[in-house]
C-alpha cells in the first residue's frame, strides 16, 4: 500500500491560532504575561524559552515538596503496574526503565475508550505525542516519555459504545452497531462496563459483512472474556502503539485514584476559589476569541464520588452559619441524594477527577513537560489556565494533535473530473456537493440560458404598464408580481431537481468518497480504527506512519492507491 502526502490545509481553529499567535487580543504576549492574563501561559513547543522555563520549574519541584518527591520516586512502579495488561514492546520497556531516571519528564495525551477503538483521532494524538517525545529527548539529552491516558473513568456510554461506519458498504452491516448493557441508564465508568461475549461476537459477525477476516480477528483479540470497554480499548491501543514507546495509564485505575487524592480533596475544600479562577480563565479565553468548551455550574465541585463504579458529580452549597464565620460550612451532596450531607463522610468517599481536575492530577503524578491536545481540549485548557497557575505555580507546554484525511486515488480522480479540488471538498458536506452538482447539471441544460429568473421581468413588463395607466394603487400589481416571481423560482428549482435526478445515479461514487472523508465533519473524528484497518491493512498503517508529519499543525491530506 503506497500512501503519499498530497497537500496541507491551514488550521482554522481559534484556540490553535491563539496558542501560536504572537498575541492574544488585549492580553499581551503569550508565555510572558502575568499569571491569569495569558490564555496559554505555559506556551508551546516552538519556543526554546517556554521549554526551558517549564523544565526549570519541574526540576525544582521535588526539593520543595517532600511528598511529591516520594511519589516521583515510586513512579516507575506505578507505570509498571499500569502496563502489566499486555506484553511490552522493546521501545516501551526502554521507556519504562528510563522512567526511573531522576531527570525524566513526560509528554501526555489521551482519549476516552471507544468500542473497537472508536474514531482514529486518538491514534493521531498518540503519534504526535510519541514524535514530540522523541524530538525533545534528543534535544534535551534526557528522557522524555510519552504517556497515553485512557479515560476508563469516563461514564458517557452513548459516546463510547458505538461503531461509526464511513465505509462504502456501511449499509450491509445490519442492526445497531453498539453493545447492549442492561444497566445503560447508570453512570458507570467504562472500566466497569463489562462486555457480554455473545453480544460482542454477534457484533463482529455483522461487521464481517463489510470487513475482512484479518480485521475482525485483530479487533476480536483485544476483547478476551472477561473484558470491559476500557480494557478492550487498552489492548487495541497497545497493539498499535507499542512500537512508538508509549506507556499507558488507566484513568479508572485504583492506584491512580490513590495518587490523585490530594488534588481532589483540594477541589472539594477550595471549590469557591477553583470556580472563581475558572470563570477568570473562561472570560480571558472568550476575549481571545476562544469559546468556552465546558460550561461552569455554580456549586459544582470538580470531582466525582464513586459508588460501586457509578460516578456522581459532587455539589456544594452554603450550610449553617454566616459565610466566613467559624461555624460556617458547606453542605456536600450528589444530585441523586440532595438531602444527604456528605461533608462528614469525605474521608471515606472514593473520589475521581473531572475534565478540569484531571490535568492537575496528571501534574501531581508526573513531571509533565507538555500535553498533546485536540481542538476541544485546547479550549478547556484555556479556561483552566488561571487555576493551573494558582495551584501548581506553572503550566505545561501544549501542542495540537495532528489531523489528517486519507482518500484513495479514485477519489482524487473523481473530484478532478468534476473540476473540484479534493482539498476544498474535504471541508464541505453532502448538501454542498449536491448543490454543486445540481447547479452544474442545470447549467448544462440548453434551456437554462433562456429560462432565467430575469424572464419574469420581461413577461410582466406589459401588465405593469397597463396597471399603471388605469390604476393608482400599485399594491395589487406588486403582490401579483411577487407571486409570479416566487412561482417562477419554484418552477426553475423543480427543473433543476429533475436534471439532477437524472444525473445522480452516475455520481453515487462521489458521495461514497465524500462519506469516507467524513462528510465535511472531519474524517479523523468519525473514521473508526476497524474501517481504517480494513481499507489499508497493517502495511497501510505502517505506510501512514511514514507519510505523515506527526507534529504538523496543518491538516494533512493523503492519498493511497496500489502496491
Structure description:
The longest helix has 29 residues. 47% of the residues lie in helices and 13% in strands. About 3% of the residues have low confidence. Helix 2 packs across helix 3 and helix 17 crosses helix 19. It contains 21 helices and 12 strands. Strand 9, helix 14 and strand 10 form a beta-alpha-beta unit. The chain is α/β, with parallel strands linked by helices and 563 residues long.
What would you say about this model in short?
With 563 residues, the chain is α/β, with parallel strands linked by helices. It has helices at 14-20, 48-64, 66-73, 75-82, 90-98, 121-140, 157-160, 197-207, 213-220, 229-241, 254-269, 271-287, 357-365, 375-392, 409-417, 422-425, 430-444, 455-470, 475-503, 508-516, 529-547; strands at residues 3-9, 105-111, 144-150, 247-250, 300-307, 310-318, 330-333, 350-353, 368-373, 397-400, 403-408, 555-560.
Discrete helix count? 21
Q: What is the C-alpha radius of gyration, as a whole number of Å?
A: 28 Å
Overall mean pLDDT score? 92
Query: What is the overall silhouette?
Result: globular
Q: Uncertain spans, ≥5 residues at pLDDT below 50?
A: 23-37
Topology, number of strands: 12
Please summarize the sheet with the most strands: 5 strands, parallel
Helix content range: 40-55%
Question: Distance N terminus to C terminus?
Answer: 4 Å
Strand content: 5-15%
Derived from helix and strand composition plus strand pairing, the structural class reads alpha/beta
Widest sheet, order of strands? 4-3-2-9-10
